[in-house]
Amino acid sequence: MKILLTGATGYIGKRILPLLIEQGHDVVCCVRDKNRFYFPEKFKNNIQVIEVDFLNPESLESIPDDIVAAYYLIHSMSGSASNYDELESISANYFVEKINKTNAKQIIYLSGIVNDKSLSKHLSSRKAVEDILKTGTIPTTTLRAGIIVGSGSASFEIIRDLVNKLPVMITPTWLNTKCQPIAITDVLEFLTKSLLNPVTYDESFDIGGPDIVSYKEMLLQFAKAKKLKRYIFTIPVMTPKLSSYWLYFVTSTSFKLASALVSSMKVEVICNDNRINDLLGVTPITYKQALDRALLKINEDNIVSSWKDSLISGQFKGNVGHYLKVPKKDCFIDRRKEDIINREYTIEKIWCIGGETGWYYGDWLWSLRGFIDKVFGGVGARRGRTHKNEIHSGDALDFWRVIYANKEQGKLILYAEMKLPGEAWLEFKIIKNTLYQTATFKPRGIMGKLYWYSVLPFHGFIFNGMIKKLIS
């Protein structure tokens, strides 16, 4: 059967795709940019990729009419737009208008638990989208989840950053708010078992694990799982804005996402009922079991997807393809080359760059640049990378975005997502027995030129040291 998967490059989308294929379905993947959609070669015969921008109704015409069901996994909370709620409503309306014209028998939507009269902007937006989807003629199944625990999820990454970096935490009182976390594996089981299941048609279900805990307890249980001693003290004077900045500077999250999460964390997200467990035969695992599984995936370097790989988690605009051709006109360029001894060895080092590996030379300066970027509202360097030695087009890599990655060619192009008075690229390519490393900066006005000359003294030893380390 042909299933439509929106949000195919997102955290949930990347994980449910292989499950749908394993169940024998053909999947139509909606993406904004084909250049940044990676999937294993073995899935090739079961995937159709179409470019769709849900804010552009004309692009939705590429959605085929012969789909039998559709997953709606589109969220804009971590984007830079402050009116993300309006954008989500517009997207949902266009989606309903198009899906009504297809042969679809079901829409499945992953939303957030809403059981409080005073909802945050984030949860209100999720509820509004749910209501819009129900206005169509296609039966809609809504699964409402709270905190999703899994390697690479935004919630899990925030918890991990806080526990790993802060032995003592002075925190806002919302850390005492209760929630009902659920493992990503259980979310996926609910999503797949709901597919074309009549008992779920035109129904909304809360999904959650068996534990009801506070955010403080979640942090302490994580610390226990990592065998770390952590002390947490809550104070009533930390405002939502201060709380957002606290999360923003300590963790890898963006400020917009931190703000949205803080407003949501003041509201209890507890399941009203768990009847769907019996309807679908699902027994959710405990928070501790979810933690153990997530930590195992991280230790095995087997993270399937990460929230930060979504384009909206950074400053990147437009399609990846628009940035493939690195400009030369009106640009400042730092070119370096070195003869290589072992091609495979150098390629492996390039493919491991950033994240925990670092940048091979002057790491403290790269970290300082990341901190400065955070101060000015950028993504900073804490995003790291999803895999230790795998890179794909569209991936986030510290404060860069991967534009092109071809291991056989020995070519990697990165585009800077840090706050800059201009645009910047970093390119590595191997031709025969020579490694070429090129840093390109296209300044924006006089401030851009001043910026280049201010960092020029550091380029001499940073870039020179880096290329020498890559070949040695």
N-C termini distance: 52 Å
Radius of gyration: 23 Å
Q: Percent helix among the residues?
A: 25-40%
The total strand number stands at 19
Shape: globular
* Helical run tally: 13
Unreliable sequence segments = 312-316
> Roughly what is the average pLDDT, rounded to an integer?
86
Query: What topology, given as strand order, has the largest sheet?
Result: 3-2-1-4-5-6-11
Q: Per DSSP, what share of the residues sits in E-state strands of 2 or more residues?
A: 15-25%
Largest sheet: 7 strands, parallel
Structural overview:
The protein has helices at 11-22, 84-99, 121-133, 154-165, 184-194, 215-225, 240-250, 255-265, 275-280, 287-299, 343-351, 363-375, 445-471, and strands at residues 2-5, 26-31, 47-51, 69-72, 107-112, 140-145, 148-149, 168-172, 178-179, 182-183, 203-207, 213-214, 231-235, 332-339, 396-397, 400-406, 411-416, 422-431, 434-443. It has 472 residues and is α/β, with parallel strands linked by helices. The strands form five sheets. It has a seven-stranded parallel beta sheet, with helices on both faces. The chain has a six-stranded antiparallel beta sheet with strand order 14-19-18-17-16-15, covered by helices on one side. It has a two-stranded parallel ribbon with strand order 7-10. The N and C termini lie far apart (52 Å). Mean pLDDT is 86; it is low at 312-316.
